[in-house]
Design a protein that fits this description.
The protein is built from 10 helices and 17 strands. By secondary structure, it is of the alpha/beta class. It has 3 domains: about 70 residues, Arc Repressor Mutant, subunit A (Orthogonal Bundle), CATH 1.10.10; about 130 residues, ATPase, nucleotide binding domain (Nucleotidyltransferase, domain 5, 2-Layer Sandwich); about 140 residues, ATPase, nucleotide binding domain (Nucleotidyltransferase, domain 5), CATH 3.30.420.40. Strands 5-4-3-6-10 form a 5-stranded mixed beta sheet, sandwiched between helices. Strands 13-12-11-16-17 form a 5-stranded mixed beta sheet, with helices on both faces. Strands 7-8-9 form a 3-stranded antiparallel beta sheet, with helices on one face.
Length: about 375
């Protein structure tokens, strides 16, 4: 998030946000340095700093080195004063991590007692409660929940339209979590969350147009266009598992069923996966891998012709070494140049994404701005 001072009715709140973001970008800063970073006057920064100190999110630290004049007192963010509990529901068990005011992810940690399956709401709520209690006991108050959900999610309403792995169909999950915890809640599709994680903290930092391809128990994509996530009219952009290719049967096109392209791709993958990892030790397995690479290459070719991305990020839990991304890149033939890379954040990518997204909303609210609603608002 970047923001410069603006001139309108909320100028004070925007200036407060500018100071807070400037402090996030460096470990410590004097009031004069913050004034230079934000374009605000030193008296304005001094007033804002006093407000943030009173709220407990900024503190005064050591004296800055002096060249002969009166040394300035350095300011710093109190990173643990506000925290987002980030949750990933896309695996077999709950994965959780804490994102502090500096945007740093602590964890992630698996919660093996919280097996995720249809009808697991009580286990999920109990596990979330334990995570919150542990953070509170350590003096790290949780101010918001951020949740990556494997399904079609409407973040604005907080409803999960469809998440078969969790047994949810048009469920008010945002409201359920908010009522159970008393916290603001942000929901996001799991593939979108991973794409945002790579965009803000991983291999796609600084890119504006990105396609993220995820292969796990299914296949999905996330689209970043002009630096923003594209959701589509039904919050279902990127559901490429329902794509049709010549020779594939036109069945399973309803959301909730495994799509024809997804079924086809995963059936090929079954020929070379051993204990959940790529194994190319035999010729038949290598041949199957080449067939899968070709299918993925053709799919990305069509997406690239429509979207013209600068980068495609490929992630697969069975492929921690990035073999699929390298193989597709080596065989790439297209009308425009395209960089294809493996994801860099691994299993923590989704937590990075939803945690950062919630932190932005938490930060704007802390400064008196309510630019985006929570999923349980």
């Amino acid at each position: 998030m970047t923001l410069r001072p603006v001139q309108h009715d909320n100028v004070r709140e925007h200036n407060r946000l500018a100071v807070l973001l400037a402090l996030r970008s460096r470990p410590t800063a004097s009031r004069a340095e913050l004034a230079r970073d934000t374009g605000l006057s030193v008296p304005t920064v001094t007033t804002i700093a006093a407000e943030l100190i009173e709220r407990g999110v900024v503190s005064e630290g050591e004296l800055a080195p002096s060249a002969g004049g009166r040394p300035a007192r350095l300011l710093q963010l109190e990173a643990s004063a506000r925290n987002v509990l980030a949750l990933d529901l896309s695996g077999a068990t709950l994965r959780a991590g804490r994102v502090d005011l500096l945007g740093a992810l602590h964890g992630p940690e698996l919660e093996p007692e919280v097996a995720l399956a249809p009808g697991a709401e009580e286990r999920l709520l109990a596990g979330i409660g334990r995570c919150i209690a542990a953070e509170e006991a350590a003096g790290r108050p949780v101010s918001a929940l951020a949740v990556a959900v494997p399904g079609v999610v409407d973040p604005a309403s907080g409803r999960v339209r469809l998440a078969p792995a969790l047994g949810w169909s048009d469920e008010p999950v945002g409201a359920m979590l908010g009522e159970a915890t008393g916290l603001p809640v942000l929901l996001e599709n799991d593939v979108n969350a991973v794409a945002l994680g790579e965009l803000w903290h991983g291999v796609a930092v600084g890119r504006r147009n990105v396609v993220y391809l995820a292969v796990a128990g299914g296949i999905g994509a996330a689209l970043v266009i002009d630096g923003a996530l594209f959701r589509g009219s039904n919050s279902a952009a990127g559901e490429i598992g329902y794509s049709l290719l010549p020779g594939l049967p036109e069945r399973g096109l309803d959301l909730g069923a495994s799509g024809p392209f997804e079924r086809h791709l995963l059936s090929i993958a079954d020929e070379f996966l051993v204990e959940g990892r790529i194994d190319l030790s035999t010729e038949p397995r290598r041949e199957a891998f080449e067939r899968l690479v070709d299918k993925v290459r053709l799919t990305l070719h069509n997406l690239a012709c429509v979207l013209d991305p600068e980068l495609v990020v490929v992630s697969w839990s069975a492929d921690p070494e990035g073999q699929l991304a390298r193989a597709v890149a080596q065989r790439w033939v297209g009308p425009l140049p395209l960089e294809i890379r493996a994801g860099s954040l691994g299993a923590a990518a989704g937590l990075h994404g939803v945690g950062h997204l919630a932190l932005e909303r938490l930060t704007t609210g802390l400064c008196g701005l309510e630019e985006a609603e929570w999923s349980n608002a």
